[in-house]
Amino acid sequence: MTDTGFECSLCMKLAIKAQICEKCGSMYCKVCLQEIFGKNYECVQCQSIQFRSIKKSALKEAYNEILTKSQLVQAKKVEYAPLKQVKQAIVDQPMQQILIQANCLNFEICHQSINQQFINEKVCSLECLYFCKLFPFVEQKDFARIRKEIINLEQSIKNKEVIPIFPKMPQSLAFSQTGLTNFNFDKCGQGIVIKQSVITLQEEDYTFKTVTSSVGFQKGIHFWKIIPLAMTKNEMKIGVSTSDKYELKTAFSDYNFGYAYYTVGQFRNGSNANGFEYGEKFKNSGEVGILLDMNRGVLAFSYNGYFLGKAISSDLLKKGPIYPCVALLHQAGFEYKCGIPIPQNLLEQFLK
């Protein structure tokens, strides 16, 4: 699976000729929809038949940029450039990849030279190897042969020590341009219980306690959801912190580095008593979406899919690490979901 934010909900790869469901925002390759549903295709998430080409959306420029950088671009017939005479001299290239002076078979798409590790296959990377081997059978819709080739490829590369095209990211939360973010809530105040994606607090005291992640976002656009549990008796504070140097037996938004949607209908920053009106009032129903754009330094929220507006814009939200946080009181709990795309309607409003 790629991590661009433009993945097809069917094949989980970068969506080619992307189609967006106008109801729920799910994205698909046009060919995937056509292969499964024919001309009358529908969204597998919400069963809507209303789609729009990404070229007609506000995501067009971001999508084109990702598509240009990707080695697996639009599925069209490619006339591969002939290989040049392979020179013996090995040249140094950026990003720690050992290349030789001849074009990859897929050069018209990837614009890379042959990787020494794939000299026999005459390609630059695993991506191009798979593309060159599988594309002819995709055109023919020969899925049995595709499965066979994948098995053969997996066996042939099992013993290869592959150097990636791109350097590994530093230890930080995986990020994307459009919200496919994965993280774990793994640090909490005493009394909070973490069981996979479900977080609960049950105690007699009426003091806020915070649960957060031990690793922060570094850059990019991020989206995740907080879903209050029915057992929740008190409002919670949901948001982010630009620091992890504080007592988790307090609410993160009590400090100047904490930013929270307090579900009494307020936004809090640097105070345990005062804030401005923001959002809806609720305790144990619905779901909250958190949208963080570190490119612009903007934090916003949604409730039940409805965009609540930008809560704050600050240069302090442009620099990582930034940690997702929730503060719970007395008897409260929630489930969190991450690694999910931003719904199209929210993203378009958020980026305005």
Automatic annotation (TrEMBL):
Residues 161-345 form the B30.2/SPRY domain. CDD domains: SPRY (cd11709). It comes from the Eukaryota. Pfam families: SPRY (PF00622). PROSITE patterns: B302_SPRY. SUPFAM superfamilies: Concanavalin A-like lectins/glucanases, RING/U-box. Gene3D superfamilies: 2.60.120.920, Zinc/RING finger domain, C3HC4 (zinc finger). PANTHER family: SPRY DOMAIN CONTAINING SOCS BOX PROTEIN (PTHR12245), SPRY DOMAIN-CONTAINING SOCS BOX PROTEIN 3 (PTHR12245:SF5). This is B30.2/SPRY domain-containing protein. It comes from Paramecium tetraurelia.
